[in-house]
Amino acid sequence: MEYTHVTHTFGPVYDDASRILILGSFPSVKSREQQFYYGHPQNRFWKVLAAVFEDTLPETIPQKKAFLLEHHIALWDVIASCDIAGSSDSSIRNVTANDMEVILKTADIRRICANGDTAYRLFSKYCLTAEMPEVKKLPSTSPANAAWNLERLTQCWAQELLL
């Protein structure tokens, strides 16, 4: 397995009205190419959010940013830099975490949701403090999580996002 040291090159999406923070682990190769979150066409993240909020599927980066802010969602990744083989979450090592205070000092975040096991595990290990809101582990929207179809993902995510 060939590892590359990679640094996250695009910032979080949030404003002072954000109430829910959704965290991924680290951007995929496709997302790094596009310089925005969940850029792989097979990832179901944007489809799940559009279904949860019964809204139009955002397609462009400006539409995606506007969608998140309209629904009071902050979006970021746990990892600032790491060694990774391609897009494989299971290969992540030598982690430097993002400073969650960047968002938490500005927005009134009431819930933190981790998109999948890896994001949850890494957040719990590197970022979680007693002062932070409850963290919920949600099933990954990655195409690698084939056990969860779009309908099942949407139902689960809706339980946590529709407060």
What does this structure look like?
There is one protein chain. With 163 residues, the chain is of the alpha/beta class. The protein has one domain (2-159): Uracil-DNA glycosylase-like domain (Uracil-DNA Glycosylase, subunit E), CATH 3.40.470. It is 31% helix and 21% strand. It is built from 6 helices and 7 strands. It has a 4-stranded parallel sheet with strand order 3-2-6-7. A 3-stranded antiparallel sheet has the order 1-4-5, covered by helices on one side. β6, α5 (117-126) and β7 form a beta-alpha-beta unit. The longest helix is centred in the last third of the chain and has 12 residues, at 150-161. It is globular. 34% of the residues are buried. The mean pLDDT is 95. GO terms for molecular function: DNA-deoxyinosine glycosylase activity. This is DNA-deoxyinosine glycosylase. It is an enzyme of class 3 (hydrolase). InterPro entries: Hypoxan-DNA_Glyclase (IPR026353), Uracil-DNA_glycosylase-like (IPR005122), Uracil-DNA_glycosylase-like_sf (IPR036895). It comes from Roseburia hominis.
